[in-house]
Amino acid sequence: MLYLILSVLCSVLIANLLMVFKRRGQSSILPVFLGNYLMAAIFSWFNLPPGKTLMPTFDLLLGIATGALFLANFWVYQRCIVVNGLSLSVGVMRIAMIIPVLLAVLVFRESLNWWNVLGICAGVAAFSFQADLRELRKLLWIVGLFAVSGMTDASLKIYKELGSGVEPAFVLIIFTSAFVFTLLAIGLGKVPIALKSVLLGCLLGLPNRYSTVFFLKGLDSVPAALAYPLVAVSIVLLSIASDLVFWKKRAILRDALLWGLLVLSLVLLNMR
């Protein structure tokens, strides 16, 4: 459970760093992610165990595919925000936890008790409540975000079950391929690369890397069917808290109802 908590803290730190970036009014976030994936790849390389530079073909291909999904998920998320608004996009991305949960239960035969099922339902209800359906304009982007976010999360569970178990090498492949794909996107889009944006991305690199590392380690002790909703609910709760404390957001009644559902979800998910 400790590793899942650390993964959540890293994810919330990333969200707040991105808020800093947003307030600086940069025109494109791709250079930020270029620095992010570069730093994550460098640290992953130095954390490789001795003699683990060669990987099985399955690990290599899954790592490259996951790196592509990391970038694709970000791109679809950004486009969905533009088309459908922030609240609906965030809600859809969190509800996408259903995909890895179903994968864990139906394919890898993990089990849930009824309290846990109710906890997942409470979490989904909270994310749905967070989303404003009045913003819905382009359904295709919503479906795409749901699918890509779910597949991105599910790829880590697939590696945990079918991969070789050399997680440092797998993480290196993820972030190296994500860096290459980001560089290609910048080149094809002729996006200018500002040094400040890349340096800010380097700050994102460490928490981004360790959010993945800690989550993979967390799957050793917590079933994926519980780990995914636990992490999703916790990230939203802490993000709300950081909005109130650091960004001075004013809470309304709807926020209180959302927090109540999220806390209920956390309690039910932890019942055995």
Provide an overview of this structure.
The protein is mainly α. The chain contains 11 helices and no strands. It has one domain (2-20, 29-269). The protein is globular, with a radius of gyration of 18 Å. The model has no long low-confidence stretch (mean pLDDT 83).
Oligomer state equals single chain
What is the 3D form?
globular
- How would you sum up the major sheet? none
- The helicity comes to over 70%
Q: What proportion of the residues form beta strands (DSSP E)?
A: under 5%
Give the number of helices. Answer: 11
Q: Which segments are poorly predicted (pLDDT under 50) over 5 or more consecutive residues?
A: none
How would you state the average pLDDT, rounded? 83
Tally of individual domains: 1
Cα-atom radius of gyration: 18 Å
- Given helix and strand content, the structural type is mainly alpha
CA-CA gap between termini: 14 Å
Query: Helices and strands, in N-to-C order?
Result: HHHHHHHHHHH
- Count of β-strands: 0
